[in-house]
Structure formats: C-alpha cells, structure tokens
Q: What sequence folds into this?
C-alpha cells in the first residue's frame, strides 16, 4: 500500500494543504474569532500574540491529513469526482469532526458542542476540497 507514495501528485498535495491553510486563516481569524473564543472560554481574556507554532502546527497537521488522504485515495483507486467527494465527506465527518468532538469533551473545553460546531464546517469543507483536488489532479 505504501508503494502509492511514488504515485501521488505532490503538487496536488501542496494545493490541498494550501486550501487548509488559507481557509483556516480566514475562517478562524476573520469569520468566527469571537464565537471561537467563547467556545474555548476565552471571551473575557486578553490573549497574547500567537507564536510561530500557531501557524506551523496547523500547517504541518494539514499536510499530514492531505498526505494521508492522498495515500488512501490512491490505495482505494478513487478516480471519479463523486467518489472523491464521498471520500472527503467520510474523512471529514467520520474522522475529523468526530475526533474534534472527542477532544472537546473534556473539562478543559467549557463548550464542547459549540467548539465542534465551529470546527466541523472548516474540516468538512477543507477535506472535501483537498479530496477533490487529489482525485481530479492525479
């Protein structure tokens, strides 16, 4: 199965990773910053300027998600747009949204349902976009 690493279009991986980075930057800093702070219990706290980990961490994690998706798409021989969309939905909802909720249901997240509801659209849209890119740009 890992022989597919040589068959992956790495430009498509970069493009898919950029989708995560660009949409994440816009979504979390411009679209939902106040509700996101509320979901984390930070609405009344003055937060410091984020360090490099704030940018590099999500970028690396997104790269891992996109590479994993590329490997699975190749290993499963997903070729059609409809199957790429189905794959993106399965990964986005079945793994990423479910895992986000699992992480959020601990005492450190005061509003786990809000946190999940705010993150879910980002993960689903990005995973769908990356899966479509990886499927069509084989």
A:
């Amino acid at each position: 199965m890992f022989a597919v690493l040589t068959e992956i279009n790495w430009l498509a991986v970069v493009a898919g990773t950029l989708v995560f980075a660009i949409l994440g930057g816009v979504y979390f800093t411009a679209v939902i910053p106040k509700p996101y702070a509320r979901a984390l219990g930070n609405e009344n706290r003055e937060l410091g300027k984020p360090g490099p980990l704030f940018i590099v961490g999500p970028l690396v994690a997104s790269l891992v998600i996109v590479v994993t998706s590329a490997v699975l798409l190749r290993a499963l021989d997903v070729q059609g747009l409809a199957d790429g969309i189905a794959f993106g939905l399965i990964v986005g909802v079945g793994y990423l949204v479910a895992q986000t909720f699992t992480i959020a249901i601990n005492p450190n997240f005061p509003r786990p349902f809000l946190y999940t509801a705010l993150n879910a659209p980002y993960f689903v849209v990005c995973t769908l976009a990356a899966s479509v890119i990886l499927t069509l740009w084989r």
The CA atoms of residues 36 and 115 lie 7 Å apart. Helices lie at 10-31, 33-39, 53-75, 81-104, 112-136. Residues 2-43+51-136 form one domain. The chain has five helices and no strands.
